[in-house]
């Protein structure tokens, strides 16, 4: 693994022309994604053995970063039900993983989140979910690592939630049992699929819904190696498919919490067994997470 990561980093050094004020640990970012999308985790289906391994890996990373939590051992357990073809199925002890960094000067909170689950095994095929959403999970860990060493003004709650693929159940559970008054939440940052784009485009969704965020995000749409575009949040304005309710940020939006959802368009490997680590685009991934980091730093300073 280290040999492969090292080779990918050499490629990044050769081709990366993006300049940011601050950068995440690129090597650890790729290592985290590669492990989370590995065959041993079998696609991280909720309550599977692979999901349990993913949980423990995330807990270990939170411990390594010396994060605190409002939940014992960083874990918020929850139950949920699904209705597939009229058949109700109950699931017990799904788990969100929650870490926390107290802010230096604000009582307000920024939630930084991604879902760590994927489809798992279906008919003897394993869906590893590298882009969807080991990439967002690794990005949350990279951002937590940065802010653990660079204390933010706002408190930051880092949430890796379960059971998104089965109906956004983890984010719904987090909002239903949120450890602070919801009025304290200034912003939700959600990352779902951020590691590849043939068009070199990363979307920032939410600024049409919450236009006060647009002046903060807009500077990052120019002069970057990754092309950041705003939209996909009001079809009447931009004519694009509305992603307002497409992922876990929806639970916070329903509570009136402003959000920015970072993600890419669906690609040929979306929800297929070919969504693997080998098919991500490392240069795009690292550049995208660095862009998100610097946008988050700006949001932390200006909100």
Automatic annotation (TrEMBL):
InterPro entries: M28_fam, Peptidase_M28
Ranges for domain Peptidase M28: 96-294
Pfam family, one: Peptidase_M28
Annotated transmembrane regions: none
Gene3D superfamilies reported in the protein's UniProt record: Zn peptidases
Keyword line: Aminopeptidase, Hydrolase, Protease, Signal
Coiled-coil ranges per UniProt: none
PANTHER family: METALLOPEPTIDASE M28 FAMILY MEMBER (PTHR12147), PEPTIDASE M28 DOMAIN-CONTAINING PROTEIN (PTHR12147:SF26)
Any GO BP: proteolysis
Cross-referenced SUPFAM superfamilies: Zn-dependent exopeptidases
Signal peptide: 1-19
Protein name, per record: Aminopeptidase
UniProt-recorded Gene Ontology molecular function terms: aminopeptidase activity; metalloexopeptidase activity
């Amino acid at each position: 693994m280290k040999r492969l990561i090292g080779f990918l980093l050499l490629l990044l050094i050769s081709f990366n022309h993006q300049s940011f004020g601050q950068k995440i640990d690129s090597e650890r970012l790729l290592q985290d994604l590669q492990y989370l999308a590995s065959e041993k985790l079998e696609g991280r289906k909720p309550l599977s053995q692979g999901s349990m391994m993913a949980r423990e890996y995330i807990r270990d990373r939170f411990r390594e970063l010396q994060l605190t939590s409002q939940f014992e051992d960083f874990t918020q357990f929850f139950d949920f039900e699904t209705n597939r073809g009229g058949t109700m199925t109950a699931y017990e002890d799904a788990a969100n993983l929650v870490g926390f960094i107290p802010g230096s000067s604000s009582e307000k909170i920024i939630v930084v989140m991604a879902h760590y689950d994927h489809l798992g095994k279906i008919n003897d095929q394993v869906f590893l979910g590298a882009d969807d959403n080991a990439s967002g999970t690794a990005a949350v860990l990279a951002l937590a690592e940065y802010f653990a060493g660079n204390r933010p003004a706002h408190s930051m709650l880092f949430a890796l939630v379960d059971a998104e693929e089965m109906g956004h159940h983890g984010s719904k559970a987090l909002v239903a049992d949120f450890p602070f008054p919801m009025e304290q939440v200034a912003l939700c940052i959600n990352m779902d699929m951020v590691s590849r784009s043939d068009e070199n485009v990363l979307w920032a969704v939410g600024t049409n819904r919450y236009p006060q965020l647009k002046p903060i995000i807009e500077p990052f749409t120019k002069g970057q190696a990754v092309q950041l575009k705003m939209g996909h949040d009001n079809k009447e304005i931009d004519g694009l498919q509305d992603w307002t309710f497409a992922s876990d940020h929806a639970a916070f939006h329903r509570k009136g919490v402003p959000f920015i959802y970072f993600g890419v368009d669906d690609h040929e490997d979306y929800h297929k067994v070919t969504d693997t680590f080998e098919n991500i685009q490392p240069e795009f991934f690292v550049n995208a997470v660095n862009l998100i980091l610097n946008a988050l730093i700006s949001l932390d300073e200006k909100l």
